[in-house]
Amino acid sequence: xxxxxxxxxxxxxxxxxxxxxxxxxxxxxxxxxxxxxxxxxxxxxxxxxxxxxxxxxxxxxxxxxxxxxxxxxxxxxxxxxxxxxxxxxxxxxxxxxxxxxxxxxxxxxxxxxxxxxxxxxxxxxxxxxxxxxxxxxxxxxxxxxxxxxxxxxxxxxxxxxxxxxxxxxxxxxxxxxxxxxxxxxxxxxxxxxxxxxxxxxxxxxxxxxxxxxxxxxxxxxxxxxxxxxxxxxxxxxxxxxxxxxxxxxxxxxxxxxxxxxxxxxxxxxxxxxxxxxxxxxxxxxxxxxxxxxxxxxxxxxxxxxxxxxxxxxxxxxxxxxxxxxxxxxxxxxxxxxxxxxxxxxxxxxxxxxxxxxxxxxxxxxxxxxxxxxxxxxxxxxxxxxxxxxxxxxxxxxxxxxxxxxxxxxxxxxxxxxxxxxxxxxxxxxxxxxxxxxxxxxxxxxxxxxxxxxxxxx
Length: 457
What we know:
Layout: H1 12-27, H2 37-43, H3 46-61, H4 69-73, E1 116-120, H5 126-139, E2 148-150, H6 154-161, E3 171-176, E4 182-195, E5 198-210, H7 219-232, E6 239-243, E7 252-260, H8 263-269, H9 280-286, E8 298-300, H10 306-317, E9 322-324, H11 328-335, E10 342-348, E11 354-367, E12 375-386, H12 391-404, E13 409-413, H13 419-422, E14 428-439
Parallel strand pairs: 5-6, 12-13
Antiparallel strand pairs: 1-3, 2-11, 3-4, 4-5, 4-9, 6-14, 7-13, 7-14, 8-10, 10-11, 11-12
Helix pairs in contact: 10-11
């Protein structure tokens, strides 16, 4: 019996050659060199990515950044111990700068790790603004259980990062040399601030963000140093900023409160802090709001109201130890309504004068790995000032308006006079704190009700 070529069994050497040839053909489609572990991560299902990123988040932030004063007293702050900020435990009774203005300011930028470069972000460019939006939405703060992540819109970033007199050089970015990818950001906004009896031109620091893959490279201190250098070049030496972590040293510490609006949705999401002793039907009844507002003369702000609101705020904010000194242009920028960004309402008296105002801004979040809900809309209280209307009634109307606009929850800090209505309107105190800090300024600590400054981010 003759055997055809197709029936002939290959020898061991021939099998090996065929195997190598097949492997070579498959490898031709693979990138050269070892596969990037982060590329491998991105190939995984999103739920698995979230598990790994949560582990990285806990590993890179857990032990190094205290969240309570008790933890902070045992922590060594390698970077902040070199900065002009009050030390933890110091009792400060004086007022003034910790370090006087320097005669000369460093001209060259601080060094970055190899493979990275500084970039000044021109946020008037739609392309650059979109890049920043992507960086923040994928890497900015998120809940510890990795279920909710901020999702900023382009319009929101324009509002919060481009107030009157903003400077492009204070929008400080870090890019990867090889592909120009934006992986780090920090910003400063010019502001006139009153601290006790002192009026000071300084900056508000916003949106410190480092890509998750780079959080072990100690890039944050370099970002802060570089922004400080750029601010000093403009002759300013003080800053105010907030953080959920305890750094040296909080000027004041306040708490987050939230008022459920969309009870069914929040319950299905297991939103943190909901009252646990209520079933859904009881919770719906307990949190029910009126169908309509009840304050006579309440309406949305228009540009013509800016001067009246400016006067209202000036009188109201003088009561507090830390407050912004807003110009008329800044009142227009921060408070004039923008769709899904900022809402402001005024109460107009019978004689046409403005007697009260309330404003809240919009923060959207992405809900991760939920079978039904993909997004969450939160209204955050900005400023409220009342001279005629009861603050409880004014804020209840604000809740009604927010609910009618589709917000799921209303959030507020217990700063200013907010505690006068938080419990009465069934707000729930959160276990998270927000700490206020001053850079290169010492003054006595203040209670939350003496803080008249809110920094949207």
